[in-house]
Amino acid sequence: MSIGWGQRALFLRSDHGLDQAGGAAALSFGRGVATRRPGLIERFRERYPDFELVPDLGSRIGSREWFRGAATCAALCTGVILLSPGFERPIYGSVPSAHAAGADLMRAQAIAPLDKGGVTGTRMAANRLVTNLTDTPERPIIQHSLTLGSGSGLQAALARAGVGQSEAVQAASLISGAMPLGDLKSGTQLDLTLGRRTDKSQPRPLEKLAFRARFDLSLELVRTQAGLALNEIPIAVDHTPLRIRGRVGESLYRSARAAGAPARAVEAYIRSIATRMPISRVGSDAEFDIIVEQARAATGEVQLGNLLYAGLAGGGSGKLQLVRWEEDGKVSWFDGAGKGERKGTMAMPASGRISSGFGLRRHPVLRFTRMHKGLDIAAPHGAPIRAANDGVVAFAGRNGGYGNFVRLNHSGGMGTGYGHMSRIAVRGGQRVSRGQVIGYVGSTGISTGPHLHYELYRNGVAINPRSVSFSVVQQLGGNDLRAFKAKLSQLLAVPVGGTRAKPAAGDQAGGETARAD
What we know:
Layout: E1 11-14, E2 17-20, H1 40-47, H2 64-83, H3 103-109, E3 142-147, H4 154-160, H5 165-178, E4 189-194, E5 206-214, E6 217-224, E7 227-234, E8 237-238, E9 242-247, H6 252-258, H7 263-274, E10 287-297, E11 302-313, E12 319-327, E13 330-335, E14 339-343, E15 346-347, E16 353-356, E17 359-362, E18 369-372, E19 374-378, E20 384-386, E21 391-398, E22 404-409, E23 414-424, E24 431-432, E25 437-441, E26 451-458, E27 461-463, E28 470-475, H8 478-492, E29 500-501, E30 511-515
Parallel strand pairs: 15-28
Antiparallel strand pairs: 1-2, 3-4, 4-5, 5-6, 6-7, 8-10, 9-10, 9-30, 10-11, 11-12, 12-13, 14-28, 16-19, 17-18, 19-26, 20-25, 21-22, 21-24, 22-23, 23-25, 23-26, 26-27, 29-30
Helix pairs in contact: 4-5, 6-7
């Protein structure tokens, strides 16, 4: 059968070959199309259309296909484990260098870090021109330094550094003649020079030992023809104090530090000012004045010591001058008038001696034993009685055996009472300040003579007034006051000058550093 060119034939490709569309016989232009025989996998799929070699273990869980897939996975994992060399036995592999023959020569000529094996030059074996040394040569001298743990351990430190025992003893003896060994500070650096020795069984001789013994003294041990000799080298020191002034600005501490004051001096300055006034009252426009001990050596070192003067002026805080005063080993701060700081929580209400204490006693008038709830302070008639602390007058008037009596309420649940007054100087509800006169000593009420009966209450219960500390204000006088005034004038004469320090970031304050040259 032949098909003309005018006819059209459509063919569809299927899994079994080429089929003519519409069921017609497979034809071609001039020849038939051969049908491909199905393969093994195709025949297996025709026979078992639902079989899957690797089923999805995430679906149809529990079916036969799922268990067959799980078994297949387990079999594959078992095969991998059986064929592996073992997890504890890694397989090492190495690739030989292409230049193994000349590796040593290449390493000697290469440029590489020392920690990576880099060397310089070519290593060569010894030949007949090389002769072996009979002994290892030594350096002619050894120079090194050591840090002293304590002055008493100087001899042991020299011995550990290689100095012979006899020379270590001699060196310690020479140094102790110039200054006590105990005065040597821990951490002192010793520079040692050890010379050549003739026999290796003997220690090296000490040629030189130099160190800074004090801020104003250097010591040097040198070897001479007669043996070791000590040279004392004094260092000139200028003890002119360091004076720093500036404006408080936003922060007193930061402004003083920006002006060049050491941190320890600024802390001492703030503590001394706080004894006279609250720091919160110091205004930003106030000016601080700090004078600190200073020692400047000719070699350039500077040592700063204690705070000598604390001044504050302006900014609504008035004028405050505090001077460090040392007497009998005790350090106190006095203002420009020679008045010291207050010590204690409460002021003594009257000047006099304590004639009777707190506790049970036989009453001098009633002649029987009863509780005495306060202190009796014997004082002249009409002597002023002052408030022990800031407070409010809770009662002022006649009160039985107390006579003329005043009671004050203070903060923190504290209160005080004052009896036997000759005259009362305050009224109820009035606010009084510490040290203010509230009355005068008398003998009103049940009393045998002029004195002040003083009571102290905590939450309304009378307690022993001696359980709290009374403040004491020191006042210099006589020769001490004259010496104090001279010292104050000397400190205020320290000039203010030098380079203006740059304020720290955020500070709106400037300072001046004063150094007297």
